[in-house]
């Protein structure tokens, strides 16, 4: 079912309470169906080295996919470093930071970093935001003269299915490490 078919429906314009309930249910169903259609496996290459990450290799752990904005985004880099510094306290979570730029833009950015900086910045390539599109990350956010997707964290459970999603409203609105840790603890309860 295509979520775009429902864009013309407005709960504000609907006056009948039963119709509002039906429309609300339909919109939630469309959102659930679109979330369920995420990729079962993918592989992304390192932007700062020669390695790669494959979702299947992380089976049995949580995977936090952080869809960042652009390589030159200082807020993205602070967000990445904060999560990496504190990440050791969540041994059951693999954190993957994804840059949506073209390969050329990423290579140019990597060329400006020294070796120490590269080691502190484990970022993966999502050329032209292909993985972001596969995960249906919303776009339309204006950033430095370009239209990019919103900053998003998608949490994939140990079974390989999406279990949580946080969509930021702007560049500074990110899922903090503390909130990620709380969500993982909540989802890990028997």
CATH superfamily of the largest domain: Glutaredoxin
String of helices and strands: HEEEHEHHEHEEEEH
The helix content is 25-40%
Q: What is the CATH class designation of the largest domain?
A: Alpha Beta
- State which percent range the strand residues make up: 15-25%
On the 0 to 100 scale, the average pLDDT is: 78
Domain Thioredoxin: 33-189
InterPro entries: AhpC/TSA, Thioredoxin-like_sf, Thioredoxin_domain
Organism: Prosthecobacter algae
Signal peptide: 1-36
Can you describe this structure?
The longest helix has 20 residues, at 17-36. The protein has helices spanning 17-36, 74-86, 103-111, 115-119, 130-134, 177-188; strands spanning 43-45, 52-54, 62-67, 93-99, 123-125, 139-143, 146-149, 152-156, 162-167. The chain has 190 residues and is an alpha/beta fold. The chain contains 6 helices and 9 strands, in the order αβββαβααβαββββα. Mean pLDDT is 78; it is low at 1-14 and 22-37. The chain folds into 2 domains: 3-36; 43-188, Glutaredoxin (3-Layer(aba) Sandwich), CATH 3.40.30.10. Keywords: Signal. Pfam families: AhpC-TSA. This is Thioredoxin domain-containing protein. Residues 1-36 form the signal peptide.
């Amino acid at each position: 079912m295509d979520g775009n078919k429902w864009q013309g429906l407005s709960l504000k314009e609907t006056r009948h309470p039963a119709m509002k309930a039906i429309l609300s249910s339909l919109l939630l169903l469309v959102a659930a169906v679109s979330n369920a259609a995420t990729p079962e496996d993918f592989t992304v290459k390192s932007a700062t080295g020669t390695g790669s990450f494959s979702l299947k290799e992380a089976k049995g752990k949580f995977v936090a996919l952080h869809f960042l904005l652009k390589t030159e985004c200082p807020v993205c880099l602070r967000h990445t470093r904060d999560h990496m510094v504190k990440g050791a306290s969540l041994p059951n979570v693999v954190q993957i930071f994804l840059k949506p730029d073209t390969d050329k833009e990423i290579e140019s950015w990597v060329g400006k970093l020294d070796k120490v900086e590269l080691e502190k910045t484990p970022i993966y390539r999502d050329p032209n935001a292909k993985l972001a599109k596969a995960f249906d990350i919303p776009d339309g956010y204006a950033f430095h003269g370009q239209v990019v997707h919103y900053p998003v964290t998608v949490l994939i459970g140990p079974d390989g299915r999406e279990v949580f999603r946080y969509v930021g409203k702007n560049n500074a609105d990110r899922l903090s490490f503390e909130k990620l840790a709380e969500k993982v603890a909540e989802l890990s309860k028997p």
